[in-house]
Design a protein that fits this description.
189 residues; alpha+beta; Aminopeptidase; eight-stranded mixed beta sheet; 30% helix
Amino acid sequence: MEKFKLAETIPAERIVLIKRSHEHDEQMWHAIAESRQFIREYLYWVDGQKSLEDTVKATDMFAEEWEQDKEWAFDIFTIGDFKLIGCIGVHNIQFLNQSAELGYWLRTTATKNGYMTEAVLALEEALFKEGMHRVTICCDVANTDSANVAKRAGYQLEGIAKEATYHYAGLHDKATYVKFSPYPIKDFS
């Protein structure tokens, strides 16, 4: 499969995904600060975000990874008031295997509204149209909110890996959910 770049803006019905940039660092910092306790339970990087400067450094890292096709990170904004409500990213990008993994989180004030399911569906559609065949979502088995997003978006539980994901409370079991493209597999030979 030939490499491709995703669009830097991916619209959905109530939200829009926009490539992470310094323009939104302050909003991102506030979203992390507001949701720190909630997201820290499942994400290992939270304690490294102690200041706006740390968020700026993270954005630099995401920009470099975007250019190298290692990860495509998007901020999620509500349409209308343009409030940053979280982020979603494509990582473990494997062009040869036509596969990628999605990771995401929402600020606590934006949960339980279906925004993340909408973001997952919009991003997976962009990936599938470009030729990705397999998209996965991995989460701690205790993270039922993340698992429910995957299920609502039509992903199927593929398996559970024992003690395979680390966060502050130690090693935890990781559930992998998978969805395959509805489009014919592209022949890239």
